[in-house]
Amino acid sequence: MKRAALMIQAKISELKNGLSAYLRRVKSGESVLVLDRNTPVARLVPIESAPIRTGQAGSTSEADKKKLENEALLDKLERKGIIARRRGPSPMEIVRSWEPFGKDIRLVEAVLEEREEDYETGYR
Question: Taking CA 40 as the corner, what is the angle to CA 35 and CA 45, rounded to the nearest 5 degrees?
Fold first, then answer.
């Protein structure tokens, strides 16, 4: 089982042999990219099952009805595996909260330092 930056990767044989473990990880919110001879063929993603309530007490505005209809359609498409909705924070929230180098180090200096380390270790 290999780990990608944001998604687990598994060959079909690995998935078959450890299906229960992979499903536990999907239930916990992770996604699995299924590979057939190192070619992506499928993706296992968690399904959020938020029940859509209709006929609630009180009046429902047209905008609320449209939101409910859209949510129901998205749920249906997700259950069929046609779409996969994003989970967790948005990419911009992640970027805004990320301070990898602290406040004293400039990005250019960090890149140059990393290149120097790669050159010294022979990694290219």
Answer: 85
Contact 14, 7 (CB under 8 A): no
Q: Among candidates 73, 8, 67, which has minimal Cα distance to 34?
A: 8
For residue range 58-85, what is the model confidence (pLDDT) as tens digits? Answer: 556 888 888 888 888 988 888 888 888 8
Q: How far apart are CA 41 and CA 102, in angstroms?
A: 40
Q: Can you give the residue ranges of every domain in the chain?
A: 2-79, 91-121
Q: What is the distance between the alpha carbons of residues 76 and 71, in angstroms, rounded to a whole number?
A: 9
Between strands 8-11 and 39-44, the pairing is unpaired
**pTM of the entire structure?**
0.38
H helices of 45-106, in order, are 62-79, 91-97
